[in-house]
């Protein structure tokens, strides 16, 4: 127990030093999170400065900051909104965590760490920091679809972290981990979440609405914070993260419809304890240990930033988000935080890792915490740069792919989740599980089988190992072929649902887009299955056999994809000519709103081009007189210009140097949100609420 004087002293030292550093960083126009971490370094035990705060007291208080930050984040995400982003966020999180676990394991083995230490390293760098991102997003006022995607990924990552901790505990304790035990752990987690949500929906929203009707702010604040801590405590009692419980509490309160009132009241309390949390992170930075393990810290920091940027961007794009949103999400999630400390601490308590793992995790977290605000700030310009530098076929594909995924989401559920799709998905999972069992089983029994072959047949020990390895490879081929074939059949089902073919024998004008979509879906499905398989089996394999097989599959599909994307670009150019003719035919119409309906038939004639929308450029438009490159329409919104009607002339597939003029009618295509954002950008109207505010670039 900490005495009242000790607690008061710690709070006074932390908040006073944090106040000074915060004012300093505000003057320097730097994120205040960096000021809090500097304050932690000042009041921590590792620098000879006579302003030391009790680390245990600060850590205890910082836990309140984590809970309140997560509660405030949950207030922004009702359960309906969370379920809406869940599938796409789930796929992104699985791909990201699998890649990072594999990279962390490889780095650990490269430094000569044990298998268990390498496994813990992979696990602790796989989960990003919800607390750090929430604070950085609040400071930079990041809202809309980007925030929804990132928070969705973070929540799924937290659930994956719970499963990782259960798995690592079983492995480290020597009891092993069976499929049944893992299924039981997953089942308990799902049962807890479902039970909490179902019961909470009956109680919490009604209770909050009743309290708010009393019109007593003090009562509303006390009741809301009480609900927050009660649900966090309940989650902890069941063995789960208090952060997860606090987030769910915020989501349940948001279902009441009074989340804005509660958020306004909670914010001052949240800000105080959130400051203490970030100071506590700075207090964990030990310059001596950083100097001792600088090589591992540097390598892991680079792996975290580059690996998360790549894996999150890839996963987000494959699930239908624009290039801009995908890159911004990747740069936002490029750090580790509180869950990494928990996983590193678990390794120490189980005596599965050396004492160096925890300070390495803290140092990597501290460095990536420092880089996160900067990465988020420059993510907009970087995303625009990436979009500009993509080859033309990829630019065209990136725009249209989002429209195809949108159509796939809007397709009837019997097509996207019908019996055949579910059956193929089950076959895919079965092939993956059998492949994992074969690899792990061969690895664990190779020694005994080798000795048995040597005794029975008199074959040399090395030769017997090659025989066992060759047999395992031969046995694995059917499962690998099955994964590829099922991925293709599953891709065909989904591609047909998004872009149905013609049944009347006429020319199928959606064939070229459907081929590219098929290859992309097949690539995404193989990644979603193969990357977790590689991450799970890597500790049992020698060398890079697993990753090489996956890279070979991706390379083969990549060649097919590039050919399809090139053909698609030609298809779009031909389609743009049809759009030009449609705009020209409508140019002399005197009917009101003629421009708005000029392209209504194009989506039926050319289904692969999305839903082209005409937009007239007025003289007052901020884009008038600028080139498309200067406007950066596709980079900022994800929409692209297929054609321009200009008086009696037209421009098909305009170049980046095309100057926009008043009176131009632009044919835009992209997702509905992208087109709406582009229309707002071209007309100077406010951006739609569902879209993230452009950062780092203006028209």
Automatic annotation (TrEMBL):
Belongs to the monovalent cation:proton antiporter 2 (CPA2) transporter (TC 2.A.37) family. Pfam families: Na_H_Exchanger (PF00999), TrkA_C (PF02080). Residues 600-684 form the RCK C-terminal domain. It is a multi-pass membrane protein. Its main location: membrane. It comes from Myxococcus virescens. The keyword Transport applies. PANTHER family: SODIUM/HYDROGEN EXCHANGER FAMILY/TRKA DOMAIN PROTEIN (PTHR42751), SODIUM_GLUTAMATE SYMPORTER (PTHR42751:SF3). Keywords: Ion transport, Membrane, Potassium, Potassium transport, Transmembrane, Transmembrane helix, Transport. One of its GO terms (biological process) is potassium ion transport. This is Sodium:proton antiporter. The keyword Oxidoreductase does not apply. InterPro entries: Cation/H_exchanger_TM (IPR006153), Na+/solute_symporter_sf (IPR038770), RCK_C (IPR006037), RCK_C_sf (IPR036721). The chain crosses the membrane at residues 6-25, 32-51, 57-75, 82-107, 119-137, 149-169, 189-208, 220-252, 272-290, 297-318, 356-376, 424-446, 466-487, 516-538, 544-562. It is found in: Membrane. GO terms for molecular function: antiporter activity; monoatomic cation transmembrane transporter activity. One of its GO terms (cellular component) is membrane.
